[in-house]
Amino acid sequence: INMAMEYTSIRMEAMSTQPIGPALRHSLGVSISGCLMGITVAYSSGALDDMGDDIYLTKPTNIQYMLFSSLAAGSAFIAGLIFGRFVTLIGKKHALMISSIFYFLGYLLMAYSKEYILLFIGRGVTGLGLSITCVALSPYISEISPTKHRGKFASIMQIQVQFGILVINSLAVLDLSFRWTACITSAIAVINLFFVAIAPETPRWLMSKAKVREAEDVLDLLMEQDPDLVHDEIEVLQRSCRLEIPRDEHGSIPFLSSQNLKPLAIMCVIMIIQQLTAVNAVLSDSIRIFKDLGISQPRVFTVGMSAAFLVFTFGSAALTDKAGRKPLLLVFAVLISFSLALFALAGFLNQGMHIALLTLALGSYVFSFAMAWGSIPWVLSGEMFSLENQGRALSIVSGVNWIFNFLTVFTWQPLNKQLTPRWVWLMYASLMLLGAVFVGCCLPETRGLTLHQVTDLFAHDSPRYVTVVHRISTAEDSTGILSLASRRGQRTSINNQPHTF
To answer: CB neighbours of 184 closer than 8 A, spacing ≥ 6?
Structure first.
C-alpha cells in the first residue's frame, strides 16, 4: 500500500508538470463539434417560429411541431446504439470527422428543402452527428488532457454547446430565416471538419491498438517533446492496458462484469437526471414557452438565457477540478428543484409579481444547470469506463440520454395541456429531488484520479487499496514503479518519513 501511495504521488507530480498548451489547442479545435451540438439542440425553436412565413411551407401543425423538435434526439438515440462500437474500432478522431459530415449534409438538406418530409430527413441526419459527438467528444478531450486539469478541459465541450445555443438564438433575433441559419451551420461543420482532421488521435486509443510508435509521436506533440514525460506516460499507458481487471480467458474485461455494469448503471441514471432538469424541452421550444409564461419579448429573453448559460458554464469549468464532481451535482440538483418550483409558483401570482418571480426562477435555473448538470455528466462519461468497453458503454449512456431527451421534448406540450404548466414544473422539481438523493448515495468522486484509477474504483470492494496492492504484487509492475521513481529522482515521504527511491 505504501508503494502504491508513493506511485500515486509520483504520477501526480508527473501530471502536474505536463504542459497544457498543445492539449488545450486541440481540445478547442475538436470541441467545435460541441458548438454544432448546441446549435442542433436549439435550432428547432427559432426555425419552427419562422416556418409559417416561408414561401414554400405552410404553418406547422402540432404533430409536425413536436416531430421536428424531437426528431434529432430520437435519431441520436437510435444511432447511439449502433455507433458506440464503431467509435471504438475507428478511433475518436475519425468518428468526429464523420459527425461533421453528418452535420453538413443534414443542415444543407434543411436549407434547400421545400417540403416537410425533407426537413424531417435533414433533422434526422443531424441527429446522427449528435450521437457521434456525444460518444466521442468528451472521451477524446479527457484522454489528451492532463489529469490535474481534466475537469476543466472536459468542460470545454459544454462551453461550446452553450456557445452554439447562443449563436442560434442570436441569429433568430436577427430575423434570419431557418434556411440561412442552416447554411451558416453547414459552414461551421466544414470548419470543424478541418480542425478535427489536423488533430491527433488519442494516445490511449493508439496504445490499445498496439500502435506504440504513433502513440509516442502524439505524446511528443502533447508533452512538447519532453522525453522523460513521454517515456513515463508510455509506461503508464502500457501498464494501464495490461492491468485493467478482471479479465476473461481472452484477456479482455467482460462487458457484463461488475467493473462495467456498476459505472454503466450510475451513468445511465445520471443522464436521466440531466434530462429531468427539462433543459432540452426549454431550449428546443423556448420561444413558445416564454410566450406561454407571459413574456412580451420571448426571443430577446431566449438570447439572454443563452448568454447566461455560457457565462455560468465557465464557472463550472473553474470549479469542477477544485470542488469535485459529486458535491457540485448534489448541491445544484437541489437548486434546480427549487428553481422549477419557483416557475410553478409564478403561475399563482399577479402580473407584476409574476414577471419578477419568473426572472428570479430563470436566473436560478440557468445558474444551477450551467454550474453542474450541463457539463459534469459529460465529464464523468469520459472517465468512467475501461477503454475496450468504452464505446459500447457510451453508446448505451448516450442512447439513454437521447431517449429521455426525446421523451421530455415530445411530451412537453401534451403534458402542459393535460396538467397545466404549473403542475408540470412541480413534477420535474420533485423528480430532481430524487435525483439529488441518488447522487448523494451512489456516485463516487473521480476528481484527481487518472482514467485507469477511475475504472479501478469499480473493480473491488475496497478500491482505494486493493487495486494498488494488485498492481505492486507483480514484479513487473513494481519494477516499473521503481524505475519511474528513480528516473525522476523523486523525493517524497511515507508515513511522514523522508524517503528516496
So the answer is: 171, 176
Query: What share of residues in the chain are helix, strand, coil (percent, to 5)?
Result: 80, 0, 20
| Type and span of the H or E element at 90 | helix 62-90
Q: What is the pLDDT of residues 125-134, one digit of tens each?
A: 999 999 899 8
For residue 60, CA distances in Å to 64, 284, 393 come to 6, 15, 37
Of 74, 64, 168, 169, the C-alpha closest to 119 is 64
| Mean pLDDT in residue range 35-39 | 92
- Does residue 319 contact residue 370 with C-beta atoms inside 8 Å? no
CA distance 258 to 497: 38
Put simply, whether the predicted model's pTM sits higher than 0.85 gets the answer no
Q: How far apart (Å, rounded) are the C-alpha atoms in residues 412 and 414?
A: 6
Please name the residue that has the C-alpha cell 458503454: 393
Do residues 165 and 41 lie in contact, with contact meaning Cβ atoms separated by under 8 Å?
yes
Quote the CA–CA distance of 271 and 138 in Å, as a whole number: 14
| pLDDT tens digits for range 71-97 | 888 888 888 777 777 888 888 999 999
Over the range 128-166, which residues count as b (16 or more CB within 10 Å of their CB) and which as e?
A: bbbbbbbbbbbbbbbbbbbbbbbbbbbbbbbbbbbbbbb
Supply φ then ψ for residue 181, to 5 degrees: -65, -35
| Share of residues in the chain with pLDDT > 70 (%) | 77
How far apart CA 412 and CA 45 sit, in angstroms, is 13
Whole-angstrom distance, CA of residue 231 vs CA of residue 229: 6
The DSSP letter of residue 474 is S
Which of 232, 201, 191, 217 lies closest to 139 in space, CA to CA? 201
Environment class of 188 (CB within 10 Å of its CB; exposed 0-12, middle 13-18, buried 19+): buried
Q: How many residues does the chain have?
A: 501
425, three cell numbers: 414544473
Residue 296 neighbours by CB under 8 Å, 6+ apart:
none
Q: Let me know: does 342 contact 354? Beta carbons within 8 Å.
A: no
Q: Over the range 356-387, which residues count as b (16 or more CB within 10 Å of their CB) and which as e?
A: ebbeebbbbbbbbbbbbbbbbbbbbbbbbbbb
d(CA 265, CA 267): 6
